[in-house]
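Entry for coenzyme A complex. Fields follow.
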Amino acid sequence: MTVSSPPAVSSERIGNVLVAKIDNPPVNALSRAVRAGLMDALHRLETDGNATGLVIAAGGRMFSAGADIDEFNGEIQQPFLGDVTNSLERSSKPVIAAIHGTALGGGLEVALACHYRIAAGGTVFGLPEVRLGTLPGSGGIVRLPRLVGIDQALAMIAEGRRIGTEEALSAGLIDRVASGDLMDECIALLDEIAGTAPPRTGERPFPVFDTERQAAARAALAKKYRGQEAPQKAVDLLAMASQTPFDDALRLEHEACRALLSTAQSRAMRHLFKAEREAGKIAGVAKDAAARPIDRVGIVGTGTMGRGIAVTCLDAGFQVALIGRSEKSAKLAREAISNIYASVVRRGRLNEQQVGTRLAQLEIAYSLDRLGEADLVIETISEDIDAKRTVISAIDAVVPDHTIMVTNTSFLDIEQLARATKRPANFAGMHFFNPANLLKLVENVRTEAASDDVLVTLMAFAKRLGKTAVMVGPSDGFVANRMLSKRTREALFLLQEGATPQQIDRVLTEFGFPVGPLALADMAGLDILAATRKARAATMSKREREADIIERLVADGRLGQKSGAGYYAYGDGRNPQPDPAVETLLAAYRAERGIEARTIPDDEVRERCVFAIINEGAKLLEEGVVARPGDIDVLWTKGLGFPAHLGGPMHYAEEIGLPHVRTALAGYAAAIGDEYFKPAQLIEQRADGCGRFG
Ligand code: COA
């Protein structure tokens, strides 16, 4: 006997009403089977003389997350979603969408084509296609503005803005919010409207979208989504739809969406969508490993990191014990955290009462005994291996057996730190980035002995903090800083050879980074970078040690933004201005080292900075420090400013071709004579093989 799978759309008659229910877990994606099922339901509606109307509903936790993203990689099979939405709209009998949970993308397009929309409270609506480098292609662009106007449609289509039920109701996107049972209210509405002609969205007038408004939208979107094609195309298509007969506009919308799907940008953004979800799953961990409950968090160390992490935990609703070294450090931490929240209130993000609730969850003390029954303790003291080992042993002695301990080191040997505890299975790393309350990235660091459920707990904990987390292994600087340091080093070498800070930063911002590496160094503080260089002097190459430009800037009192001057001059603001004094300093440096400045082509600047990152990423994959190339891409696009529409460094390398990357790297290795440009073995192998890292 074969067991057949349940239909993707089941339909049943309730009285005279036909109800079609989408059932395609986990997110009711509109796969071919669902589209065909909806067409069948419509056919049944038209042919069943007793059926007076159709309700389209869905099972599970949402109405629909839209088109099945997996289908985008191949030939999409008929019926197309546009055929479904057009047939729905043209139905001679009324069709109502019963929406709950989430209606995104194609899911919302189905609802827009129905004659009425009723939603359960708490439903979220959106057209997120632009975040996948494409746009709605089944009537979303042509229908939505007819219901909600141009401004709301622009925000939803060109920016992927999601809205809640109340806003959807006031904007005119939905007709009613169900106060009771959603299905009962849909059936009641069908009774109410019996005998009236179904109102069709396509018969409403399209709002005016004048050229001035178009130009303003293009300019704003170009600034906000630099280099992205889809937001600009959204303006083109809205302008087109405002002047084109409905059916022609539908066809043009569909063609444009299909064309966008085959762009490199859309491939890159779809890759990231999948990679972000993959990153949450830890490679090699037992399937049944479950996250442990975390309620109370202890944080040891009241410096910048400790305070930032404390605020992050409070914002996420945890009870926090923050432990300093002395009464004085505890007092300073309390003041600093109050100041962080005062500025949040000033900016209107929270009100006094909300801040009060958060601060009531915070205890600041200066004895480790106050860690009490913490489920998780994060050690954040300064980066000194002996001091950290001492503190970790001391924490170990006071917290209960179940407590998970993590260290927030950014480059120390984590296995050595693990040996300072009696609970290595309950010990791992969490590398937050400064400012921890604002930056959305965390590297969770696995140690040899860490148990699977501890690792799963840390991923779940980071998610509750609203962070994107990637699991990495021990390595000097883990993944983010190890890769970033190669770009920083390359920027220094380019300065040595003749580039200016403004050339390097311009080339990389044109590539798509929001800030160039040298303006970024000014933000981080050149004194901090000089201290890091000092700490690592023993492992640096001779050339790197001799590239002491940062030290020279610091010696001149140029510490970066905080001192009003670094690689750039800042005047009173934060806007970097080229500074002739830096030119003079660089010229003196080169003269002293006997280097003749040369004009470096922009392509070389870009390739050396970006390919140095890619080469290091390949080495990290080779060493097994990170499990998947997609993890590196998530880390760079979520946390380090790599443009999402290029998909992250590893995807970008595959897209431009690993043979090309290999040849360029080998060329720089030969020309510059530096070992580190030698292509990673993985690049060598994959350039000759499948052309992919994964
Ligand atoms: N098509 C195919 N698969 C989808 C999907 C879609 N439109 N949307 C989500 N999924 C998959 C995810 O890849 C994930 O798969 P996995 O379990 O194998 O990793 C699973 O559904 C659950 O999604 P996830 O994002 O982990 O769940 P969530 O509850 O956190 O979020 C959504 C649910 C719907 C809000 C979120 O998935 C989302 O925003 N999806 C994208 C919607 C979209 O862009 N639609 C337009 C398509 S053009």
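NOTE: Residues 26-27, 29, 65-70, 102, 104-105, 128-129, 132, 277 surround coenzyme A (CB under 6 Å).
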